[in-house]
Model the fold of this input.
Amino acid sequence: MNQFLLIKLTAVLTFSCIAQSVQAQAYCALRDPVRQIGELYPGFSYMSHVGVVTTEARKEVGTRLPFTLHFNELGSHTLYAVSNGDARVGYVHVRPEITRWGIMEITWSLDADLRIQDFAFQRCRNRRRAIMEGDGFKKQLQGKSFDELIELLNEDGTNISAGGLEVSTLDHEFAAAIVRCALKTIAVTTIVWRDEVKTAMVLPESRNLHQVAEVYTPAVRQALERMFIADNADIERKTVNVFRIIDGSKKKDS
Amino acid sequence: MRRFALLLLITIFVYDSTLVAEDKLFPWNKSPSEQIDSGLLKQIDNWLTYGDPDRLANHDSTASRFRNNLRMTVDLAGRGIIPHKGGNSGSGSVAFIGLDIHKVFSDDNGDFATLIAQPYLTKLNSVKGPHFFEGDNDWEVVNRIMNVNFTRVFDERMNIKVGHFEVPYGLEQPLNTNGTLRDMTHPRNLGVKADWGVTLNGTLTDYEYEVGVSRGTGNEFFDSEDPYVMAGRFGTKHVENFIVGVSFLKGTIWNPGALNAYKRGLVDVSGVIGNVIDRERIGLDIQYHFERPVSLFAEFNYGKDFERDVFNTMIELDVYNPSKSSMWFTQWNYYSEEYDADLGGWESQIDGSIGWRWTPNNNWALSMMYVQEISAKKLDDASVQLGSKFIAQLRYRF
Done:
């Protein structure tokens, strides 16, 4: 009888593993990324939103990306919503990525439309981290949406795509891991905190962003000349990016 | 015995009432298909994680407010210990069942406080525990960590923590080893691991700090003999691969075991009465994380027990696999103090340990550790026997 009970208890324990909603470490070891929030959004207030990354969420991430979350990434996680007064300005989320240098943890800062604003390493053993923390690399990720980031990786996400990022060949693997982490962060935020983030989005949720290759077309230059600002040196025109927004929720004839 | 009888009665009452209930609580009263959908632990797990959906539908309800930003986990662990000394072996065990709660309080202006509560029912079976256990087979409710950190009194540069917290000193402060076999120097170097009181803590641009004043009694709060602890640690920021911290401690700590160990080094113990030991420590701790998943930790402590000089050191090397699901570690401790000259002057004790921790998923953790005494403090020319122990722990969180 005792053996029978033991077998049943073992079965119940095994079933309960399926939920995977906890974290292996005790909660006293949790650290909020308060320094990074203070550095990324100085003077702004933030509010925690604890969400559960389930096995279903893991599967959904797998449908959007050629890779998915590691099982240790499941469980309760926090999205920090950053506000300036009443206005939601963005989010902060910490996500790990397994690399051959061990687990790398990155604090990501996203804008209200879940584009990359900035990032900081919370844990990274790679000695070349300072290069990736420099403006040269960061500027290549800043402002990028999910669709633009995925184009920076090769088909299976193991390396950066040809011409995708300007980094030393020594850093290809490292850069790819950072981009994978960024993609997972946006995907997880969209899936787990869907209700929380969609209310603050400026752009439609089902949009497609396409970067316009040529910003200063002859027609635009003519228009600027008519307004006598064609030679205005106050604007650094090389840094101006223009995007075409295609709202997938609208019908073609509407 | 009376406590055991009470527990047994409550268990029988709860169990019997579920037998007649329409919705059977225990899984062995259900068919296999019912168990898959609604086993007891599955139900508990779902409730701990998501709460009752009907109650949570109302965002202004107490349940909703309680559930908002809450992490709550049941933590079960069993620890087996096999000591060996002088040709004699024994065995003992410790069982833990506890709740691990983490709750962030927020209002319209953002987060303003974080609660951590970890009450653990701890049962010893033929094992010598800390001083707050009344015997080798006692059980106690151990308050591992139980505090509220007020995070919006100023900004991230200064928070105020109130409650039961790890004494902010040395490597334990940034690492937190609660509930694991691996331990830092707090129990033997300070004589108190967690205590009741208040700390100021925060993160500056390049530094972190925590400074506290506490009761000096450890798990329980009482004022007999008026113990106290003042302690603090200042360290470089934890996000770097090379981290340095300096710590201090001053206090009179309620710890009869530590006081008895102190008396061993005295020729005349008649002047030492009570249960508190007067301690001062200053410490230096270092962490270095190599490029591959290997980490080195070291802690150096100098201070006094009453008027006696003390020097304690710990060095640890950790090796992980890339996903950190396996960790191997070796730790070496050196404890020394200056006995009365007639008893031999400076005496030291060295022990080394090797250990392994395996966390295959977020629920399970299996740990093993072997500790060997290399040398022991001895009185005058007395011979000493060196001991060893093997410890294994299985932990399940859901």
